[in-house]
Amino acid sequence: MSPKTGGLGRGLASLIPSGTAAMAAPAEIPLDRIRANPYQPRKSVEDAALRDLAASIVEHGVLQPVLVTETLDGYELIAGERRLRAARMAGLTKIPAVVRQLAGHEQLEVALVENIQRADLNPLEEAEAYRQLTDTFGMSQDDVARRVGRARSTIANTMRLLELAPAVQAAVRDGSITEGHARAIASIDGAPRQEALLAAVTRRGLSVRQTEDLARRLKTATPETDPATAPAAEVSADPQPDPETERIESELRAALGTKVSVTRSRKGGRIVIEYYDEADLARLYEKLLGGVA
Q1: Catalytic residue at 81?
Q2: What is the pLDDT of residues 43-55, one digit of tens each?
Q3: What structural domains does the chain harbor?
Q4: Among 28, 59, 70, 81, the one annotated catalytic
């Protein structure tokens, strides 16, 4: 199966020289000689998906080799965490593997890109992997963006999720809310207020657009009129999203690479374009005006 490459630029090809990859053939390596990747960005694997993969391996074998690096006492996994676990579950003693010698940050890059291409990471796992590349290996956000084939603003926005209250992060991890919900909640300062907004979102089943609207109201609310903590009956009905406005917002977000909100009124309206640091502001200035601020 060909890996997904949508929006990832060079992807794995930029991290593994193509000439070297073409020369190396997979080898059958004993499973008990391969230890886990300490830089593996994915923290959890669904049991059901793992069982399905194990059943497929029993039927067809391991169709795509894992990637490992050789160590003094065996091998260390770089990419192929699910295949390795499923092979063990299927009762295999060996697995086809391609051996590469990669530094620590390159191991993380390869594992991260592979998981992104397969859509295997939740947003918090991506954010933690990006932070490890910047904090542990000293890479800038521009470096990370270039290596994984994503916009720098996407890297910055995803890493901001690590500033969320623990309860909100947990909701992202277990899928209770989406990354879009989390970004809206992140616009509110303070863990108690973020948790109150999270409770309102999950209690009412709000969409991302409705969560953004509620977050804007919460920023200017007093304790007596707080729309996140007030009983549902005391809060005016959340506005129904306008499909045309949502389409415009979506296209502007895609074009600018950042959060954009459109508010309409009887006599016009307003467009709000958010930026996250001075570099992001300069990027938007250049994109909108064609010059350097």
Answers
A1: yes
A2: 666 677 778 888 8
A3: 11-117 (3.90.1530.30), 164-234 (no CATH), 243-289 (no CATH)
A4: 81
